Amino acid sequence: MRRSQSPTALAATLAAAALALATPLAQAATSPSTAATAAHVTTARSCAAPTHKDVMACKALKVTGGTVKSAHAERALTAAAAPSGYGPASLQSAYKLPSSTAGSGRTVAIVDAYDDPNAESDLATYRSQYGLSACTTANGCFKKVGQSGTGKLPHANAGWAEEISLDLDMVSAACPNCKILLVEASSSSMTNLGTAVNTAVSLGAKYVSNSYGGGESSSDTSYDTTYFNHPGVAITVSSGDGGYGTEYPAASRYVTAVGGTSLNSASNSRGWTESAWSGAGSGCSGYDAKPSWQKDTGCAKRTVADVSAVADPQTGVAVYDTYGQDTGWEVFGGTSASAPLIAAVYALAGTPSSGSTPASFPYAHTSSLNDVTSGSNGSCSPSYLCTSGSDYDGPTGLGTPNGTAAFTG
Questions:
Q1: Among 24, 34, 40, 98, which Cα is nearest to 333's?
Q2: How buried is residue 28: exposed, middle or buried, by Cβ count under 10 Å (0-12/13-18/19+)?
Q3: Which of 228, 291, 297, 308 could cross-link with 254 by S-S, CB 3.0 to 4.6 Å?
Q4: DSSP-derived 3-state class of residue 42
């Protein structure tokens, strides 16, 4: 029996239904066998590639055509109003994440550039669609600040608003009980984004997600010290969406660099299979020193990535966004999806001890990860830097979450 809705919720439902009927991605429920043979999708970057040194771009990839393989993901309300793409139940199942009271009271910070004026209302629609508890400013679950930590917000930007919606929805999907702090940098410069990271930590966040990146530079080691050296705080960063090649701040030795996979349902004991996504960034840093917990021999300096999660737009995730040209339910991929998801998994795992280095945690618990052994993101030598195999590899790192044990100190 369908539950009754308030006028506001009903209006949102009808709007979503209209959008669903107008787009080829929002179809009636598709069986897993049909979805598995779906055609290749087309995508568009939410943020333009940076053209200046030390300027970052968000890593969200929006599906613009085709049919995603994850179109059979769980649905709510009516079929016409339902989004395509994986939602919370699928992601929690794929990565064996607890969904009862885990993460309660813990704050995951999202750092992005520019303002999303509809962030809170769009988040409310996403959470309502999937039966998640409300996360609002009024109940203390959601908070949005500018990069200095005040209510002074930057100007709005539609591309980064899509990124913000993706990030908020992925934290909600993986850790429904977590609080969310959105810190909006004044611009996409590394200086402003780094300042926002420091603000997130100063406001008490022990888990900070960063879904952006740009070219490496000789300034990176200085940025490391100034913005990312926060003992006892888990900082996740997207590895990139351009295939083999290294970006900053994923290359920082103080962060967990998050690669990407293609995620499909299966009839095996896990119920899912994963392979390296061809767009996931990986490789050797040109500037950052190798952390002591990395033992691979193909890079003299820092190797990217550390761990991974779903990022392939063909097996994309459902996102609700209304600030921009294409509004409503959409499907996204990119390592912008995997970075906030992993930040939320850190939150589910518990508060890192004071002085610890959370980026090292997965290396001490490799048996608690799903080893991804197929797929590649390019050609390279040695081949493990771009081709998945047993144990560590570049595109997927040590693997994907199999519960939360790998993310504990």
A1: 40
A2: exposed
A3: 228
A4: strand
> How many CB atoms are closer than 10 A to CB 374?
14
Q: Is the dihedral of CA 397, 398, 404, 409 positive or negative?
A: negative
Of all helices (H) and strands (E), which one includes residue 254?
Answer: none
Residue type, 238: S
Instruction: Break the chain down into helix, strand, coil percent, rounded to 5.
Output: 30, 25, 50
Instruction: Please measure the distance between the N-terminal and C-terminal CA atoms of the chain and give it in whole angstroms.
Output: 45
Whole-angstrom distance, CA of residue 355 vs CA of residue 374: 36
Distances (CA, A) of 327 to 15, 131, 159, 184, 297: 10, 21, 12, 21, 46
Distance (Å, rounded) from C-alpha 222 to C-alpha 227? 8
Q: Identify the H or E element spanning 244.
A: none
**138-165 b/e with 16+ CB inside 10 Å = b?**
eeebbbbbbbebeeebbeebbbbbbbbb
Q: Judging by beta carbons within 10 Å of its beta carbon (0-12, 13-18, 19+), is residue 268 exposed, middle or buried?
A: exposed
Q: How far, in Å, are 95, 156, 272, 367 from residue 402 at the CA level?
A: 5, 37, 11, 9
Measured CA to CA, the distance from residue 166 to residue 174 in angstroms comes to 12
Residue 173 structure tokens = 């999907």
- Helix/strand/coil for 296: coil
Antiparallel, parallel or unpaired: β 272-276 and 256-265:
antiparallel
Q: Which pair of structure tokens corresponds to residue 396?
A: 């997927």
Percent of all residues in the chain with a pLDDT value above 90, rounded to a whole number:
82
pTM of the model: 0.89
Q: Within the chain, how many helices (H) and strands (E) appear?
A: 8, 18
- The answer, yes or no, to whether the previous bond of 401 is cis (omega within 30 of 0) is no
Q: Determine which helix (DSSP H) or strand (DSSP E) holds 316, and give its type and residue range.
A: none
* Position 326 confidence tier, pLDDT thresholds 50, 70, 90: confident
Q: What is the pLDDT of residues 397-408, one digit of tens each?
A: 999 999 999 999
Give dist(CA 282, CA 304) in Å, integer.
5
**Residue 354 burial by Cβ neighbours in a 10 Å radius (0-12, 13-18, 19+):** exposed
Rg of the chain on CA atoms, in Å = 19
Q: Tell me: the pLDDT tens digits for 136-148?
A: 999 999 999 999 9
Whether the pLDDT of residue 8 is over 60: the answer is no
